[in-house]
UniProtKB/TrEMBL annotation:
Taxon lineage: Bacteria, Pseudomonadati, Pseudomonadota, Alphaproteobacteria, Sphingomonadales
UniProt organism field: Novosphingobium endophyticum
The protein, known as: Adenine phosphoribosyltransferase
Pathway noted in the entry: Purine metabolism; AMP biosynthesis via salvage pathway; AMP from adenine: step 1/1
InterPro entries on file: Ade_phspho_trans, PRTase-like, PRTase_dom, UPRTase/APRTase
EC number(s) reported in the record: 2.4.2.7
Any Gene Ontology CC annotation: cytoplasm
Amino acid sequence: MTRDDLKALVRSIPDFPQPGILFRDVTTLIGDGPGFAAAVAMLSEKALAAEADVIAGIEARGFIFGAAVAARTGLGFVPVRKPGKLPVPALAIDYALEYGTDTLEIDPGAIGEGSRVVLIDDLIATGGTALAATELIRRAGGLVERALFVIDLPDLGGAGRLREAGVTVDWLIDFPGH
């Protein structure tokens, strides 16, 4: 399956979650068995090339792709959670979204000091969520030098913001102009 095949599996929904936003819905790709398997295989190859020790995935769709990559590569998985979901005292960070603010948390004991962490999410837009997750993982002692995404929205500049933070960014497909 090619990257163009994967791109064709992503549904576009206008005016969600608010007017003027063209939402790229990756759930249609996840719902296609061969497409999902191909995306996970491509991401796994990149994670192994980065010599990852552990995979971190951002809630919620980053859990789907990140956990699948961790299982395929035999690496551990660390969930980057929304607030109040962890049963232990958590490290937390507040950050700005494209259309609001939010908080992310991780279990501070989930990442070994100096572990090479590959961060995975379904989509990068402005980069706010990925930058917050990167900062959180670094506070926990992890090294975040690589982030992988299924989709990049290059006109929103998130990949560039991550690169400025010292993270190599890669994605499977992009949607310029949105």
